[in-house]
Amino acid sequence: MPIVAGVDFGTLSVRVTLLDGERGRLSTASAAYPLKRKREDPDYATQSHFDQMDSLVKATRKALEEAGITGDAVAAIALDTTGSSVIPVGANLEPLDDYYLWCDHRAKVEAQQITALAHAEKLEAIEWCGGVYSHEWGFAKLLHWLRHNPEKRTQFVTAFEHCDMVAATLVGITDAKQVKRSVCAMGHKWLWNPRWGGLPPQGFLSKLDPLFDGIRDRFQGEYLTSDKIAGTLSPKWADAMGLKAGIPIPVGAFDAHWDAIGAGCREGDVVNVVGTSTCVIAMEHKTTLVPGVCGVVPGSVHPQYTGVEAGLSATGDIFEAVARRAGTNVSELSKGLESYRAGQTGLLRLSWDNGDRTVLVNSELGGVTLGWNLIHTAQDELFAAIEGTAFHTRIILERMAEFGVPVDRVINAGGIPQNNTVLNQVYANVLGKPVLVPAGIPTSLGSGIFALLAAGAFPTIEAAQDAMCLKYSTYTPDPRATVVCDRLYRHYRDLYFALGRENADAVQLGGALPELRKIAAEVRGE
After folding, report:
1. Element holding 507 (H helix, E strand)
2. How far apart are CA 199 and CA 192, in angstroms?
3. Is there a cis peptide before residue 359, judged by omega within 30 degrees of 0?
4. I need a labelling partner for 307 at 20 to 30 A (CA). Which of 184, 202, 339, 409 fits?
5. How far apart are CA 389 and CA 157, in angstroms?
6. Residue 227, CA distances (Å) to 163, 171, 182, 232 in order
7. 304 phi and psi, to 5 degrees?
8. CB 242 within 8 A of CB 71
9. Higher per-residue confidence, 343 vs 21
């Protein structure tokens, strides 16, 4: 059995895991890189391609050292990244700017224009991404960049998603048309689908803005699922990383999609990849269009299934913000949360601090907390925030189920669930079903599985999952807590749609605050 490297580019660091096809994980190492923010522009979030590549080298060499092996033993390397994280490039794939990171929200106007024109033109592609094009996605970010960087337009050749740019860099490609593009990335974020010949028609794109004249030609090339090979590792990068040249690199994908594979996702499972934000991933044999989700794309998660993506624009980021405003950190503020019971705070918190990704797809929303009194604490708000993200997740899962996506089993993956038993129990209580949590961090395990496939170690993804995936801890709903959560959820759902939609139907909200007080008093009196 070969040894392979699985790489995961996150928001703040890159993680490299070395896997043995028989022994499992040998080592994991990470290296950080800066996230560039601007206090005067909270929508701004970028990262340097060069910083990321430097960190990849450091993390790979560290992983080799910790495993006690030489790079010659590594038979393949696979990588996933955040998305939509977009980089414009010039000749020879030279970056013209930093990545517009997934959490960069500057392209709100562009996204609204794409959505409006798509509906006016009856563009089929808009229905495959839930009916609303997001400011977090590729075409919106590229159009924003073109509008705000006129001095660089003459140098512009094309743009790439992060996963495709890193793979092309490692392979040593300099001709943009030779780069293999990820079906996962392009399908979920760029309106791509072979059903209508790939990208939207040039006429639609030009009508959106003349800056997009000829843009379709700039995205020529192969669009492939991750069971295909993007190329082989170039001598330059092999030398830098301490690996051998010529090893295969499969076509990359987004981190949440491969995290779902690494968490053991099968049809009927929904995987909540809970980190700074939450990605909700499912897959199905049939293809079901779901209003408000982030995309329905054949081959995006698993090459033989249709992937469905949804999510929350902020989860861990909300917890961090609550703690930061209290002058502490999440770890300290969480001490004692295990004694909290459903509804005891009397607070109900909507998780819109970074807008709404699903199912409203509205970047203009902001966080809302109802029920404050004079003695509430930051810890109360943190517990309410955990409950709020669980309620929001329930709205998403109910929307999926309503339109036929199977939701039989819930898995909490990502970085937070492995270290937050309170969150997992709250999710089980709110969702009313057991929540499975991998016994260890599955991040970069999915990329390792695709690397093992590229190395020929396993015949199928399922066979690799059976050998590599972690066992689960199970959080079972507390029946009494579930009854309380159901009462809270009715108000959460009413508020979610009443406050989140500009033209929402009238809803009776006057009972919400008295009911929160009543529930809290009942829980405290037990």
Report:
1. none
2. 4
3. yes
4. 202
5. 40
6. 15, 17, 11, 14
7. -100, 5
8. yes
9. 343
Q: What separation in angstroms does the CA of 64 have from each of 18, 68, 75, 250, 379?
A: 8, 6, 13, 20, 41
State the residue for tokens 């044999």.
285
Q: Across-strand partners of 193?
A: 198
SS3 call for 287 = coil
Cα radius of gyration rounded to whole Å, the chain: 23
Where is pLDDT greater, at 327 or 524? Answer: 327
| Mean pLDDT, the chain, whole residue set | 95
Residue 44: pLDDT band (50, 70, 90) is: very high
Angle between helices 479-500 and 512-525 (to 10 degrees): 160
- The H or E element spanning position 78 is strand 74-81
User: For 164-194, what is each residue's pLDDT tens digit?
Assistant: 999 999 999 999 999 999 999 999 999 999 9
Other beta carbons within 10 Å of 501: 12
* 276 vs 320: CA distance, rounded Å: 9
β-sheet bridge partners, residue 311 = 279
Q: How many residues does the chain have?
A: 526
Angle between helices 479-500 and 421-431 (to 10 degrees): 80
Give the pair of three-digit tokens for residue 439.
Answer: 């016994």
Burial letters 305-335, b for 16+ CB under 10 A, else e: bbbbbbbbbbbbbbbebbbeeeeeebeebbe
Between CA 485 and CA 515 the distance in angstroms is 12
Average pLDDT over residues 232-246: 98
Cβ contact 232:171 at 8 Å:
yes
Hey, what are 26's tokens? 């040998």
In which residue are the tokens 């109900």 written?
348
